[in-house]
Amino acid sequence: MTEQDLEKEVKLMKEMRNELAKVTTVRDKLSNQLNETNMVMSELKLLTHDSTVYKMVGPALIKQSTKDSQENVKRRGEYLTAEIERHEKIIKSHDEKLTNHTKKINELQAKLKS
């Protein structure tokens, strides 16, 4: 075990931390989008079946039925929930790998000191 091995492990750990930060940021954005989607769904539930709902498509507002709007928002919520769960698994995996790298670095440092 040499200092080069230690430097290599430290570099790998820094890369993993950066990747973890990116994945965490994406997960946070997805969580915010899910909160917004849930707020939209709660507003849509307050409408009657004959209410007029408009959906923005590019620069235009397109008329849409309340039922269709609710179904679209529900599907979006399901998609966002699945994506958040996927990112949570990635974060957990990265945390475990970081823990292993930290242990390995500590072992290498101990061997180099002796």
Report on the structure:
The radius of gyration is 23 Å and the shape is rod-shaped. It is mostly helical and 114 residues long. It has one domain: Helix Hairpins (Orthogonal Bundle), CATH 1.10.287.370. Helix 1 runs antiparallel to helix 2. It has a two-stranded antiparallel ribbon. Helices cover 80% and strands 9% of the residues. The chain is built from 2 helices and 2 strands, in the order H-E-E-H. Strand 1 and strand 2 form a beta hairpin. This is Prefoldin subunit 6-like. It comes from Octopus sinensis (East Asian common octopus).
Short description:
With 114 residues, the protein is mainly α. The protein has a single domain, classed as Helix Hairpins (Orthogonal Bundle).
Notable traits:
114 residues; mainly alpha; Helix Hairpins; 2 helices; rod-shaped
Q: If classified by CATH, what would the architecture be? A: Orthogonal Bundle
CATH-assigned fold name: Helix Hairpins
Element-level helix/strand string: HEEH
Spatial gap, N to C terminus? 11 Å
Tally of helical runs = 2
Question: Which structural class fits the helix and strand makeup?
Answer: mainly alpha
Shape field: rod-shaped
Coiled coil: 3-33, 84-111
Family: Belongs to the prefoldin subunit beta family.
GO molecular function, one term: unfolded protein binding
Protein name: Prefoldin subunit 6-like
